[in-house]
Known about the structure:
CATH architecture: Up-down Bundle
Shape: elongated
Structural class: mainly alpha
Order of helices and strands: HHHH
Helix content: 55-70%
Radius of gyration: 24 Å
Distance between the termini: 93 Å
Largest sheet: none
CATH superfamily: Fumarate reductase/succinate dehydrogenase, transmembrane subunit
Mean pLDDT: 86
CATH topology: 3 helical TM bundles of succinate and fumarate reductases
Number of strands: 0
Strand content: under 5%
Amino acid sequence: MTTIEAPRTPARPVRKGTNWEKWGWIYMRASGFVLVILIFGHLLINLVLGDGVKQIDFAFVAGKYATPFWQVWDLLMLWLALIHGGNGMRTLVNDYAHNRTLNLILKWAIAAAVVVLVVLGTLVIFTFDPCPVGAHAADLPTFCTAK
């Protein structure tokens, strides 16, 4: 006698633990929504209000990074965009790199690139000083007093 399994019976046993694909999917939707707000706010402040693109120079950036609000705004934009993009690239690698070794190498390369860029970008945001101590007066921007 042959037994036919009931429809919708899983082919593999159901795994216990964290469903990383589900959380990656949720992250992509949530970060995409927040990124739209952050990016349009960034474009509005930098390009639409004021003198448009003509206002963007070293002094403009220095003025923005003098306030914690813009540091956090740019930090959120940096982290969300890089992790969002890295997760998207990971999905593409999973879809198209069928060789297990190549798949692993590509995902590690993506993760390494995201980590390096997040660390460097975070350092730039929080260590940016338009008037470094000990710099020659001729090398300083016009709004810095000679130290």
